Amino acid sequence: MRYAASEKLEIIRTVEQSSRGLRRTLGQIGMPRSTLYHWYDR
Question: How many domains does the chain have?
Fold first, then answer.
């Protein structure tokens, strides 16, 4: 699934602000960590 730039930024901010931790937050969203790290690299 492709995400718009605004959606990517929203997901990144959600993960960064979450008190649940990276794995748990991404698990709830349904996104692999590798995708998030790929976005960070860009």
Answer: 1
